Amino acid sequence: MEEPESSARSTAKRKLPVRSRSGCLTCRTKHLKCDEAKPECQVCISRGVQCGGYQRGLRWSTKHEKPAELAEHTFRTSPKQSCGTKKRRGRPPKRQLDTASTASFTTAGSVYSSNDANQGVFGEFMLNTQPLEAQQDAQPVESELSPTDDFISQFPLDLPVEGLPMSEFEWTPDTLDLTTPTFDNFSDTSTDLALFPVQQNFSTLFVPPPITDLSTQLVEYWFRDICSLWSQYDSPTNSNRMLATTLWSTSEAVSTSLQSMSSAYLSSKMPHMKKTSIAMMKNATDVIEAELRVVKSSPNLDTVPMGLIYGLFCIGTSICWLNATQLGIPFLREAKALLHRINKQKRRLSEEERKLLNIFNKSWTYCELLLSVVSDTNPYITYEAEEVEDISADEYPTALPTEPVVDDMPHPWTGVSNTVSRLLTQTLRLCRNYRYHVKHPGPFATRDHATALNMIEEAKTLEEKLLGLDFESAPANTETGDQKTPCRHLVNVAEAYRLAGLIHIYQTFPELVLLRLPDNLSGPADAHIPWEECITPLSLRLTKLIEQLPADSGSKMTQPLLCITASTGLRFEPSDTTSSPETQAPLATPMPFDLGSTEHCGLSDYIGQLIQADEDIERLSTSTATESRMKIVEARCFIVGRLDALEALLPPRPIVVAKTLVQTIWNEYDKEKSVAASVHWIDVMEENNLRSLFG
């Protein structure tokens, strides 16, 4: 009877697992007796903790080595520990730590592009702020991130910045958890690192702290992304980039202005940054005002105050990124006055400073072009109190050589032709003046008539100058160095400016159209001027030129103004829009809150309305679907699509105003019932206050 019991006891003993001296990692750490059940021991399961497993790591022995010098590195201690390991007197050889630490301090090859030919030229402006592992993980998806996302992902805002409320920033920095042991991010060839025990805590590894200074990050963002948006082309020859590279570290006006531009652009993507952007704009303005007081108190300017002028251009052209209705006129007016003063004394400047002054003069030419679209130039406006036409004239004017049609070196704002930029500026200024006098006639009709005649003569002179320019056959003298913006793009922009000037002249001064039409088309002096004979073809031709410029080309900064100009000439002929019993278009929708008889009727009448509306639309389309009308419709669709694309690529707030302006102009055109084209786009813009810097 005892034999079965003894055999059962022996069988039970054989089924017990073989015990080791150590057990699982968790039990060894807690000094508990482990049953070594697999895959997890029952002791850990009963205690509700995760079993550490049974792998055995290698121990680093240092008892036969000399103590290493630990003072050469500063270690960061992690606030949490993954497991309670014993402290060891030594560490892996210093070579491995040096490799890990120095790899994180690699200098970026280029601020604005990693594959440009000028790699390394501006590398000093950017340090990698991510650990080596994070960089390796981020490389495959780098092309999928937008510039704004890239800026946020590398930007830990955990330190306060002097003078700025940090509550505006609520981004969570990307961090690497160093308390979890892992070898996934290390190379298989790193055999020395593989000698670490599996349970080794990596919190003692030296990891360089990321750059947490907001000012540095915003300046870096300007060089990487904003500069290319602010220029027609971007390369080492871009004077905007060269000036910023030279001045940002030595001129407080430039440094604060670059930060303001970056924050203003980012505020359109992250609305919570707007208050901070305004604070930065205020800070930059204070710095600029202080420098202006010093310059104005100096009787002579022996050198060009580059930082001050550059800062004025930065703030003056980017304040509309925060508020689209602000034109930056006070800043640009100060830049104009300062440049005018320096030009009067330019004989005292060195040759290098004269070249620099010439760059700034062209920058002002572009700013004046943007202002001529939206800023009145009549003597009652404060902006024109200076009455300075040519800021480049010195105090001893002489006969200057004729300005070339195509410049030897392209400018990042005026492109390849400063001449056509000047002519377009004069044209827009003249058109605004003329429309102002039409809307606000003086008390003396004779004087108004004489003023109008003088303006017509001036328009005729500008027309002849624009007609005399030829850019389509002009050779591209120099290349831009920008793969996205070959010199041909800038030549096309110059030709587009020429067409834009002619479109504005013929819309504002229709009398000149009669002089250009053949005798059989011109008719009597008071005859209706057909748009399809002159203005519409020019607008369609301008639209085709814009189509040849890719939306992502550097020339995109000039395209909003060109799109607006093209849209002003896309008017349907009055015969297409006049109302008659046969061709009157049905209302697509009733007026808001006024359903009228459209909905309040019987079932048969309701369906009858549907049939009648369909017949009216069919009759209208067959009578008005001319080839000219279809071209205008296609051009309008393209203009809307291009402005949508530019809204995603450029600072969006001014583009939104441009889109609204274009649609409002077309709505006014389409509502016209008279044969004579009485609606002018400048009047539409002024009446609806749809103004911004469109470039």
Secondary-structure map:
Blueprint: H1 2-15, H2 25-30, H3 42-47, H4 94-103, H5 132-138, H6 147-153, H7 214-229, H8 239-247, H9 252-269, H10 274-296, H11 306-318, H12 329-344, H13 351-374, H14 418-439, H15 445-468, H16 487-508, H17 511-516, H18 519-522, H19 535-547, H20 559-568, H21 574-577, H22 596-599, H23 603-624, H24 627-649, H25 652-671, H26 681-688
Helix pairs in contact: 7-9, 9-10, 9-11, 10-11, 11-12, 11-13, 12-13, 13-14, 14-15, 14-16, 15-16, 16-19, 16-20, 19-20, 19-24, 20-24, 20-25, 24-25, 25-26
Distance between the termini: 105 Å
The percentage of residues in β strands lies in under 5%
The count of β-strands is 0
The chain-level structural class is mainly alpha
- Radius of gyration equals 36 Å
Order of helices and strands: HHHHHHHHHHHHHHHHHHHHHHHHHH
Total helical elements: 26
The portion of residues assigned to helices is 40-55%
Q: Which outline best applies?
A: extended
Major sheet characteristics: none
Pfam family, one: Fungal_trans_2
GO molecular function, one term: zinc ion binding
Biased composition (Basic residues): 85-94
Region (Disordered): 1-20, 69-102
Short key terms for the protein model shown above:
mainly alpha, single chain, 26 helices, 695 residues, extended, DNA-binding transcription factor activity, RNA polymerase II-specific
Task: Explain what the structure shows.
The chain has 695 residues and is mainly alpha-helical. Among the domains are: 145-173 and 210-394, no CATH class; 574-687, no CATH class. It is built from 26 helices and no strands. It has helices at residues 2-15, 25-30, 42-47, 94-103, 132-138, 147-153, 214-229, 239-247, 252-269, 274-296, 306-318, 329-344, 351-374, 418-439, 445-468, 487-508, 511-516, 519-522, 535-547, 559-568, 574-577, 596-599, 603-624, 627-649, 652-671, 681-688. Mean pLDDT is 73; it is low at 68-147, 152-207, 377-387 and 576-595.
